[in-house]
Amino acid sequence: MIGIYVRVSTEEQKKGYSVEGQINDCINMAKTDNIIKYVDDGYTGEILNRPALTKMLEDAENEIINKIICYDPDRLSRKLLNQLIITEKLEKFNVELKFVRSDYKSDPEGQLYFQIRGAFSEFDKAKIKHNTMTGRYRKAKKGHVVKGSGLFGYDYDREKKTYVINEEEAKVIKMIFDYFTDPHTKFKGINGIAHHLTELGIPTPRGKKVWHRQVVRQMLMNESYTGRYFQNKYNTEGNYVKKQAGERVELRLRPREEWLETRIPRIISDEQFNFAQQKIKHAKRRFANYGRHNYLLSGLVRCGRCGETMTGRKRKSHGKDYFVYECRKNYAGAKSRGCGREMSENKLNKIVWTKVVDMLNNPEKVNEYKDDIPAKNYLLEEITHLENQIKRVRNGRKRLLSLISISDDELNLDEIKEKMRELQDEEKKYKESLKELKKENKHQKHNEYSEIILQETLQYYLSVKDTNFDKNQMKKIIRMIVEEVVVVDAKTVYIHTF
């Protein structure tokens, strides 16, 4: 079986670089329709972690294909090192490699030519990137909006290279600022505005039904609505490659003096925008003062009924404040509202602290407490189910490949390609769910560091035992040894230790 590998990055797509053209040229070279296509559409050649490339190498290793035809070496990668890694793997699997636009041989002269060509390809990519960035910077310096970033409230005018107001979206922006800056508004802060927009059925900037308070907050803090749109604000170098490689991408602000200001139509006045910023600052201070109560188990408590986290809340009774841990999410956009279970903070603190002290005074009881935790059998069942689902999906992909290789009938390759993508997406979803379940189940397995953690906690506990523990010392001890506190009901509390 012959494999055909083609790749087009997002930038190359915009320039009309054709996937179909590459495929046709490769098929002409193969002189057969008995092929498997591996297409990385929209992926940069700077990374190795590409879906189609990964699948092709797996099939090469499993002897599903014995020959690969690629349009050009820079389709495999624009980095010389990556090209060499790929070719070395293919040689290891005894898979022949051919290029439409290059004569590749695995002898010393062929390898030298291949490496020189790869070095030039890498240089060419760096040069294109530099020229592109320089060109964008010059356009921004002239007052053009280089490319539309999907700024809510505006449409991008490609001919004039600027933003024009989207009247319907601009109405929403004005509503948000008016709601927030009106001293007589009936809505309570940013959260109330988000709830109200959801109730009105206004779509979010991404077309969703539910507004999150953070989305409203970002709009209130976006200076672009005053007509000052800043470009060259973030250092995005390497972000595109990181994103495609599945790595975390962080926004890095450039120094303010490097920002380029571009004028666009105004939606909000400077006075209203500045007033909104002052209100946000004051709201931060009020929230900071309100949240000064030091919860002993902050971030550790989970509801044993619905599985949601429980957070601290202040209550009033007969004019006096008291505190509880509550399973309820009131903020706009919360994925789950929780089941509403409550437990007195003092009562739960006392239960947990008593058990922790008992463990530390009697270290031999630690295993008893571990045995006291009910085994989550349903987790093991779900893990088994997901593992079986992953096997089913993989077998489905193998059957599709076998069908292609043995069938004499004319197959609809587009439908098969779409089905393969669906199976790949399905497998990815199952793998992510499996990873989360295994993470949740890890506390039931013996941890080789448990004894070290216990000894370190015990050492600190004994060093402060005779000092009448203050709350911060109690908090430190609990966090050293306790991973999670599960509240089933007022009398049933389980402590998960590390």
Q: Which class of secondary structure composition applies to the elements?
A: alpha/beta
Rg measurement, Å = 30 Å
Largest sheet: 4 strands, parallel
Structure summary, number of beta strands:
14
Which runs of at least 5 residues are low in confidence (pLDDT < 50)?
A: 285-290, 371-378, 443-449
* Beta-strand percentage range: 5-15%
State the gist of this model.
This protein is α/β, with parallel strands linked by helices and 498 residues long.
What does this protein structure show overall?
The protein is α/β, with parallel strands linked by helices and 498 residues long. It contains 17 helices and 14 strands. A 4-stranded parallel β-sheet has the order 2-1-3-4, with helices on both faces. Helix 7 crosses helix 11, helix 8 packs across helix 9 and helix 16 packs antiparallel against helix 17.
